[in-house]
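The material for today's practical consists of a large collection of protein records. An example says more than a description, so a record of this kind follows:
***
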Amino acid sequence: MLERLFGLKAHGTDVRTELLAGVTTFMTMAYIVVVNPTILGETGMPVAAVAAATCLAAGFGSILMGLVANYPLALAPGMGLNAYFTYTVVKGMGVPWETALGCVFLSGVAFLILTLVGVRQMIVAAIPKPLFSAVAAGVGLFIAFIGLKEAGIIVASPATTVALGDLTTPTAAVAILGLVLIAVLQAWRVKGAILIGILLAGAAGWALGLAKIAPGTSSLSDLTATAFKLDVTGAFHLKGGPNGAGWALAMLEIVFVFLFVDLFDNVGTLVAVTKKAGLQAPDGSIPRLNRILLADSAATMVGAVAGTSTVTSYIESAAGVTAGGRTGLTAVVVGLLFLVTLFFAPLVQAIPAAATAPALILVGALMVGALVDVDWADPTVAIPAFLTLITIPLTFSIANGLAFGITSYAVLRLLTGKIGKGDWLLLILAALFVVRFVYLAKG
């Protein structure tokens, strides 16, 4: 049955490898079960309900992705978008969280419509193929940077922005131990190296008191505090403008940000993970792209109904791909683990960040290898690729990296006379990114 559903042999994998990959991906992204409720809880949403909604949305989205699109892509409420939901929409604009959930739902509907009419697929196809490699490598640097930060190996510095942390702290020591373990196991070609390293480092972290286990469990009954509480009608009556007039301005602004950021973060993740997994077609396209996008849209709408912010593909899926995941079975395993976690959400805190950080660092290192596909001798390719590569980690945004890369690529082709009739969508995207930069500057 699994062979018929996922084509394991055709993808050069087996059930054991996919299970290990699924567990590995889950271990690297399980933090969202704790972090997302903490962020959304500041809006006044019940934390227990958001934890349950997070598990449900991640479980539904990941399983749907695996069964419908057959890709090792895991989904969960997106970091960054949950912060925008809380700090900008609810606390900054004074929008009730129920109405904000209505806006999330509307963005999911907009995603679905754009997917059905082919607009999202056209946008992915319009991205220059050389930038695909730059995005993959940039995302690698991004998640490696996150891993180094979570490990305490690098810390913030007012003088130099970042600096070397105190490597004698328990967190840094456990992370370095995990880094060495995973690196050595990978060098010896041990299957499940990342998962083994996470578990061993996690045990060391637990022994040193880094894990904080909260008593109690979650249950489906917790969902009643947020499920079906979204207020779509209220979203259409939001007031915008200096005099509080013009509902369209406020509602469209919120929905647009949810839509825009999710779209390009998603595209960046798809490009990076599918390239790392060798799942792109010879021409650089992504097979069954419409199914991937439909699964993402549906997950966002279900998440809003359950009571959480926008659901999106997680770049941590690259950890599972590095562990050998190549089919949707990996995503299904992740989804099932999230559904099980629904009843044991507090126990996720037993996985210290110091244990998962090494996995992110080494996966990031492996993803940088995609840069060999960039023609560094051609300035019209090399410069946009570099801007994409460097902007993603330094701005903490895949969308920003794509924005810099696509805009600079379009400008260079335009000014060197290399633009063609088929590049009309590329120019439109570049113009939209310029508008986005102006909007962010004013915001």
In short: Residues 240-248 have pLDDT under 50 and may be disordered. Residues 247-277 form the longest helix (31 residues). Residues 133 and 370 are 5 Å apart (CA to CA). The two ends are 52 Å apart (CA to CA).
